[in-house]
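JOB MANIFEST
job_type = single_chain_structure
chain_count = 1
residues = 198
[input]
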Amino acid sequence: MYSIVMREGDRSINAFSDELGSAGGYEVLNSWNLQEYLSEKVKSFNEVIAKAKATPSSISDIVLSGQIAGIIAHESAGHPFEADRVLGREGAQAGMSYLTGRDIKSDRHFASESVSVVDDPTLPYSMGFFLSDDEGVRARRKFLIKDGMISELLYDRSTSSSFGVKSNGSVRTSDFTAEPIIRMSNTFFCLLQLPLMR
């Protein structure tokens, strides 16, 4: 992770990121060439300070970076789809879910049919990589939202029984002294079909 704060005149930028990550050893760290990587980041942030323009106040089409789209998927679909939050258990620790109280079996419509969000811990060398969770359940790719419909939540053995399904391997813990809890892994928007260009 890194945090960079820069200021020029009355403009400033605060950049925090944890975009570097992998499953591996020091060979991965060495392959990143961090000095050059961070130098390029500082140059790009400096250009943002010098050339950035205010966003328009009108409704506009925008193109998001992968990093921003990832944050949206993480916060808007990942955490709210953790079944312990949906059941209200996580309220005091990390927040509730907007799905709390919703009958997700009968009320599955969620978004535009072009929206699909995946949680996949099986992506090799990714930051959220694992092949089985900390309850011993085999990890797999999960569609949280598919074609705009709620497909499944992130479950552990306990919450899955509350919903009448099987655990989908979504439990992890930081070490043997901490309680295993449901957490997303690699959560991202997935394009299932490209819209017809006109």
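[summary]
Helices lie at 26-31, 34-51, 66-78, 83-86, 157-163.
The first strand starts at residue 2 and ends at 8.
exit_status = 0
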